[in-house]
Amino acid sequence: MTMKLKTWLKSAVMAGALLACTGSAMADGMLRYATVGEPPSLDQQVITSDLATTIAHHMFEGLYTFNSSNAPVPLLAAGDETSADGKTITIKLREGVSFHNGEPMTSADVLASLKRWGEFGSRGALLFDNVESIEATGDHEITIKLKAPFGPWKNLMAFINGGPAIYPASVLAGAGKEPIAPESYIGTGPYKFSKWEPNRYVELVRYDGYVSPEGEPDGYGGKRVAEFDTLHFIPVADVGTRVAGVRAGDYDYAESIPGDLFADLDADASVKTIVNGSPLFGLVFMNSKEGPLKDNFALRRAIQTAIDKVPALQVSIGPDQLWRANGSFMPKGNVWYTEAGAENFSKGDAEAAKAMAKEAGYNGEPIKFMVSTNYPFHYDSAIVYTKQLAQAGFNIDLQVYDWATLIDKRGKADQWDMFFTHHGFVPDPILISVMNDSYPGWWATPEKAALKAKFTASSDPAEREKIWAEIQALIYEQVPTMKTGDVYTYNIASPKLKGLADATLIWPAFWNVSK
C-alpha cells in the first residue's frame, strides 16, 4: 500500500462513531451506502442534486427511464402513440401499479405530477414551453398536445433528476416550487421512504406491494427486484473514512473517491472499483460575438488542429481508466454516439495549424483564454493547450480566475476569446450547452438554426440520430467549442455485493443487487 493511501486512511478512526447509526449493520438484509453528505431534499421534480437522485430513484419513478444505451424505455408508461403531425402524444399507463400508501396509480396522479413539474420543476419548462394542453383521457391514459412537434419529449420525461417523478395527486395538492416534505415522499418504486435522521442516515425499506415492469433488466429498464430489507444512505464527508469503511466491511458502497487513489484501490482485493458510465467532458468555448474568433471559422479550425488532447488528459486526469480521448459528444454505447467530424478532435499538428492560421489572416493578435483554478483539470489542461498553441505560433493570453469571476466575465463578450468549462450527462443532445444560442459563446449561425429546427421537430429516433451527426460535424467545422475528452468519476463497493454492473449508467442503483 502506498503512503498516499495510508495517509487517506488515517482518518478511519472517525468511522466508529459514524457507524454506530447503522445498528445491525452487518446483517445481509441491509445495504449501507456512504455518501459525501446529505441531500437538500429528495423531491425529484424540483431538485437536481445527483446525491438526491441516487437515493430517490429507488422510491420515485417516472413514465420512462433509460436502458443501457441511454435510450428511453417505458417504466410507469405501458406505451405511447404520436399522431402523424407529431403534435399529439397519447401515453398509456401501466395498470395495477400502487403507491407506497397503497393507493392505485391513475391518470389523475400522473396529470397532477406532470402539471406541477411543468410549472415548477427544474427541467419542466424545457418540455412545457412546447405544450398546448395536457389532460387525462382515461383512467390510465394521458394525452399531450404540442404547439409544434418536439422530438426530445421522451428523453426529458425519462430523466428523473429534476424530472417528472410521479407522486399521488393528494401529495401535490397545493404543492409549488418548494420541495415537498419528507412525510410526502410517496412513490411507486421498489423501496419506500422510512425515515431521515439528520447527519446520521436516510432509510428506505422494501415496498412489498411493488409491481415491477416486465422484461430483462437493461440499464434502468426492465424488471426491478428489491433484494434488501433496508437501504441506509449514510453521510460520511471524509474520503478516508469512506474508503476504510468499505475495506473493513463496515460500508457496502462509497461514492466520489479521488482519482489519485484509483490505482491502489483497483489493485485491492477488498474493494471493487466502479467507474461511472456517464462521463463529464471538458469544453473550450470560442467567442462568436466579438474578437478575432468572432466569425473566423478557419482560424478556429487552426486552433483546433494545433491541439493534442491526449497529453492534457494524461496530465490533468491521470489513470487511463478515468479518461477517454473521445471526440464524440456522447460516449461509446450511447444511442447518440457518432464519429462525424471527430477526425478533427485531436490532431496536434503544429505546422499544419501554423499554415492554416496564416491563411486565415492571423497576425499574432493576443487571444484571451480564461480558465479557473477551482477545477484543477481545467487549469492543468489549459496549461498544456497554451504550450501547444504557442508552438503553432499563437499568442495566447492565459487569464486565470476563480470560478465565480470566470462565470461573471464569460457573460461579457469583450472580456474573452476562449474559456474552459465542463459538462455533465444530459439525456438528449439538445440540452448540451453549445446548442443554446444564448450560452456564452453565442453560437447562432444559419446552418445551426436550420439543423436545430429539424432536430427538435422530428420524433423519429433514427432520423434524430442522423441529424445529430450532421450537427456534430458542423461543430467541428465551425468550432463554436472544442470538446477536450471524457472524464470518468468512480465509486467503490464491497466484493460481496452481487448484481452490480461494472459501471454505473448515471447513478448507482440497488434493485436486483444482493449480498
> SS-based structural class?
alpha+beta
Strand order of the largest sheet: 8-9-10-1-11-19-12-20
Give the termini separation.
27 Å
How many DSSP-defined strands?
Answer: 20
* Beta fraction: 15-25%
- Contiguous helical run count: 16
Helix proportion of residues, in percent?
25-40%
* Stretches with pLDDT under 50, minimum 5 residues: 1-26
The quaternary organization reads as single chain
Q: How would you sum up this structure, described in words?
A:
- The chain has helices at residues 3-9, 15-19, 50-56, 107-120, 124-128, 153-158, 169-172, 239-248, 262-266, 297-306, 309-316, 350-359, 376-391, 403-410, 446-457, 461-478, and strands at residues 30-35, 64-66, 72-74, 77-82, 88-93, 131-138, 141-146, 191-197, 201-206, 230-235, 253-254, 272-276, 280-286, 323-324, 366-372, 395-401, 418-423, 481-487, 490-493, 503-504.
- With 515 residues, the protein is α+β, with helices and mostly antiparallel strands.
- Mean pLDDT is 93; it is low at 1-26.
